[in-house]
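Researcher: Good morning. I'm working through a list of sequences from a screen, and I'd like to move beyond sequence-only analysis. For each chain I'm collecting a predicted structure so we can compare shapes side by side. This is the next one on the list. No need for commentary yet; just the structure.
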Amino acid sequence: MTLSQLVFRSMKKNIRHYYLYFFALIFSVTLYFSFVTLQYNPTVVEVSDNIKISAGLKAASYLLLFVVIFFVLYANRLFMKRRSKEIGLYQLIGMSKGLVTRLLVLENAFLWVSALAIGVGLGFLSSRIFAMILLHILEKDVLVQLIFSVEALQMTIFVFLALLIIVLIQTAIGIRRVSLLTLFTANATSEVNVKRFSGMQMLLGFIGIILIGYGYYLSTTLFEIDSDNVNMLLYKMIAILGSTIGGTYFIFRFSVAFVLELIRKRKRGHLSIQDVLSLSPIMHRMKSNAMSLTTITIISATALGILCLSYISYYSAGSSAKQSIPFDYIVVNDQGEVFLEQLNEKNIEFLQTDIELLNVEVEKKELFTSDLPAELVAATKGLIPITKLSDVQKVMPELTLKEGEGYIIGYSDMMSTIIKWEANNPVQLTTQAGEERLTVKELIPESVLSYSLTGAGEALVVTDEQFEKLATDSRIQEQTLWSKQVGINLVDRSQLKEVQTIYEDTTNNGRFEVTKEDGVVDSVNMASQEEFRLSMLDVYGLIIFVTGFLGLAFLMTTGSILYFKQMTEAEEEKASYTVLRKIGFTANELMKGIYIKQLFSFGVPLVIGLLHSYFAVKSGWMLFGTELVMPLLITMSIYVILYSIFAFLTIGYYRRVVNDSL
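Model: Good morning. Structure tokens for this chain:
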């Protein structure tokens, strides 16, 4: 028999072990080639910022490459262990280590070259689909061309051939360093025999739970500022990372085993067949599985957390634009008269909301719920816009005020997380005549003013009488540059594109200027609400596209690793299934215990990963958008469904092994 014939028969025999590995390789090549191809797609480059798109896709390709390297090296090591007896038999019948190495090199080379060829072909066909998905996310209505990039092909071949060489070197070193006896006993090596559960192990298991709980607690107080230590944020981030990773390892290594030990002791030795096939294998392999399960959990939580935050930003683009720019279009200081005249001439219906403004120096120190660090005390006083109640009631008719009261508007979720204020406390207004105190009745998240006028901060609403009084103050008059905001909402929003052109032509692209008394010109840029929303989509659309496919790659990696490990365990336990079948247990009875085992192997890392990502997202989601619940539910639901596919594939493989065991 020639070496090529032996390679062919070996691959045919191991096809059931290779198919998911082969599919994952094809998927990796397809995704990588598609990402690189997108960088050279002229349609994608033309519709957005060239540098931004290219940089984003290039960064994604590097991250994807890291995922592929991690997956391939781990999977190759696992397959080498699974085939250890086969490799030992080759040497036992007289084949040298060099010849065995050549055999495996040819197998891997054939597998990788085939995956590379198929992956490039699928990547070429799917690159147009990916480009269409990206442009759809960015809401760009253009026709995407199907192109084949030679540069992308060269980069893909170089990257995956380099990775193949690394895998072949790993394989050759593994064969040459391992003895024949070790090859025959590799799969029989016990990982850990659980005979007694010591007090120290119980303590470490309890510590694991405490560490994760501590990390979760810190995440809920991440942005709380300590007046004695302004550097607590960095400490908390490091502590959260360390406690969750360490706690996760301790839970898999000790806590789970401790719980299973308690269950086993409560049964007083009367274990059912389900217990034998679930509790015992889990405890028996807990030592080595702890590290891999910890890695899978942390990777899953990280990928899911990043994906959730990205989707929150994308999902919140519309509400964030409305929060920042409350009207379709905004003009200031009566400088938009030409724009309004053009709308009237073209019979474009709109609703106009005029809001008068003053700039007043306000001291807000008494609003804070806790003492501030000395470095931040000076920041509590500054100029903020003030408007009158009757103008705000045009948008918020439910608001009412008594004399000496006011509202803070624009107190968003992001501000409320970083700046802890409490209503029913006073603020001080600095006027020419002195200080005036005003009690803040309520903190309102919505705003009626453009973020360009508030500096992305808050504004103060006062009674009409109070406003008219402040308007006569000489100091306030000198401070006030932007005295009026005119908000325009279109009746028919299908006219947005037409009105946008008029707005840009008549307002110098939304740029308004005012000359101060000293001759210095101050300016403000007013984007339209739709323009602001599309600019956010340009940024977060690319991010959600990249993180979505990278998240899918991470999911494929972690799911495949779990699947490969369970395949290995199923083969190792096949002899036990044979004995159990011979003494009368049916396949369905054996499968009940296997279901419990898979519920642990897939369910526990998934649940802990979901909890990690939830608390990570919950701690800082407000920095990324205005919506939390729906993006979180959608993202996690998709992740759970896709992750469950690997669990069902594993159960299907176990059922085949159990059926073939007799």
